[in-house]
Amino acid sequence: MLIGKFSVIRWLLLLTWLSLPAHAGVHLYDGEQTQLLADNFAIQHEQSSPFTISDILKRRHEFIYQADNNPNYGFSDKGLWLYAELSNLSHNTDWVFSLNFSQLDTVDFYLVINNEVVSQSHQGKLQREQLYRVPTFNTSISIGEEAELFIRVQSDSSSLIAPIYVMSEAAEIRISQVDNLIWGLFYGGLFILAIYNLVLYFGSREPSLIAYVAYIVTVLVWQFVWGGHIDFFFPDSLSPLLSPYTSLIFSLIGISSGIFSLIFLETKANSPFMHPVVVAFLWLQAIMGLATLVDIFPPVWEHNLVYGIGMLSITSYIAAGFEAYGKHYKPARYFIFAWGILATGAIVGMLSLVGILPSNLLTTYCFQVAVFCEAGLFSIALMEKSRSQLENEVSQATDELRHNMELIEEQNARLDIARKDAIKASNVKSQFLANMSHEIRTPLNAILGFSKELTNLTLPVDKMEQVRIINTAADNLLTIVNDVLDFSKIEAGKL
Fold first, then answer.
1. Of the candidates 343, 323, 340, the residue with the CA atom closest to the CA atom of residue 262
2. Which pLDDT score, from 0 to 100, does residue 493 have?
C-alpha cells in the first residue's frame, strides 16, 4: 500500500516536471528569420531603488522564468530586468534586438561577455539614444561565442510590454523597409482622406466634413506620437513636448469623434434619446483631458480612466447610430459598422495592454487597423449622407413642381371658363351693336332725305345755314353708324 502511494507521488512529480515550460538559451542561426524571445527571458522586478548592471550581474541566480510566453509584464512604476543567454551558431556577427513597443519610458540594453559589459544602449521615450521608432539594439557577437543579454524596462505611463525580437542586420533592414512602407500607406491614406473631405467642405460647406477632418488630424497626431515616429523625426523638438501627453491626445480623439457623431447623425432630430448622453460623454472626456494636464491621478489610473471613458463614449456613439437608423436615417448604417470595427479593435488592444490577451503583432496593431478602416467607412458614410440629402432635395423639388403643375392646371381651367364667358359677352355686344346700328341708320336716312330736300327750296340765308349744318351732322352721324356696323360685322366674321 505504501509502495503504491510512493508510485503515485512519483508519477505526479514526473507529470508536474513535464508540464513545466522548458527554457533554453537563445541560439542564433543563419538566415533572415526573426525570433521572438518572450519565452527565453528570465525576469526580475526591482523592489525599491533601481538596480545597476553591476548589481544585476551579482543577482543572476534570482531571475525566474514565466509560465507563459506573453511579453506583457503588467503595470508597475518599478523597473523590470530581462535576462537571456545567447549562443551565436551562425556565420553572422551583426545582430539586432528590437523591442516592438514604443511607449516605454526607459529601455536599457546590455550585452555581457565573460562577465563584462561589451555593448550597451539607453533608449525609450525619456532617453535620447533611440534612432528608430522603437528601441533597437545593434550589436556584434563573434561566431561561436556565447553572451548574455540584459534589458531593463521601466514606464510610469503604460504597462511593461516588451516583445523583443532578434534578427540579423540584413533581416532588420528588410523589415524596416516593410515597416516604413506600411506606415507610409497608413499615414498617406488618412492624409488623402482628410484633404479630399476638406476640399469637399469648401464646395458644400457641410459641417460634418470639417468635423471628420478634425477627427482624422487628431488620429494622425496620436498615432505619430504613440507609434514612436515623433521620436524618429523630431527627437529634440516635438517629442519632449508631446510624448508625455498621449492620454490628452487620446481624449482629443474622443472629443473630435463625438462632435463628428453629433453633426453627422444630427442627433437632436434623429437620436433625441441618446443626444444628451453623447453630449455628457463629450464633457466628461474634456474634463478628463484637462485632468491629464494637471496630473490629478496616478499614471495607471489616468490611462485606465481615459481608455474606459473612451470605450463608454464609443458605446454611446453606436447606440445613437442605432437610434438614428431606426428612424430611417440611412447613412447611419455605415456609421454603426465603422464604430463597431473600431470598438472591436479598441477592446482587443486594451485587453492586450492590461495583460488579458497576449501581446503580439495582431493585438498590438489591431487598433490602428480598425482606425484606418473606420476612417474609410466614415468617408463612405459622408458620401451616403450627401447622396441622401440630394435625394431628399430632388424629392422635395419634385413635390413642389407637382404642386405647382396642379395649381397651373386649375388656373388654366378657370382662365378657359373666363375666356368662354368673355367670348360670349363679346358676341352679345357685337349683336347688340349691329342691331342698334341698323335701327339707327333707317330713321337717320329719312332725316337726311328730308334735310336735302330743304336745300332745294328758297330760304333765307340763316335758314339755309341751319339746313347745311343739319346735313353735315347727319352725314357724320351716318358715317359713324356705318363704321360701328362694319366693326360688328368684323367681330362676327361677316366682313
1. 323
2. 59
- Which amino acid appears at position 65 of this protein? Y
- pLDDT for 4 equals 44
Residue type, 132: Y
Angle between helices 361-454 and 169-204 (to 10 degrees): 20
What three-state secondary structure class fits 153?
strand
What's the rounded Cα separation, in Å, for the pair 385 and 398?
A: 20
* Predicted TM-score of the model (pTM): 0.73
Hey, what's the cell of 294? 494637471
Give the whole-angstrom CA distance, residue 187 versus residue 396: 41
What is the C-alpha separation between 242 and 251, in angstroms, rounded? Answer: 14
Distance CA 83, CA 299 (A): 27
Domains of the chain (ranges, CATH numbers): 21-168 (2.60.40.2380), 180-329 (no CATH)
Distance between CA atoms of residues 57 and 443, nearest Å:
149
* Gap between the Cα atoms of 76 and 64, Å rounded: 17
Q: Which residue has the cell 329719312?
A: 446
Of 229-243, 251-265, 334-348, 430-444, the one with minimum mean pLDDT is 430-444
- Cell of residue 9, nine digits: 507521488
What whole-number distance in Å separates Cα of residue 153 and Cα of residue 485?
120
Residue 165's pLDDT band (cuts 50, 70, 90): very high
Q: Which helix (H) or strand (E) holds 449?
A: helix 361-454
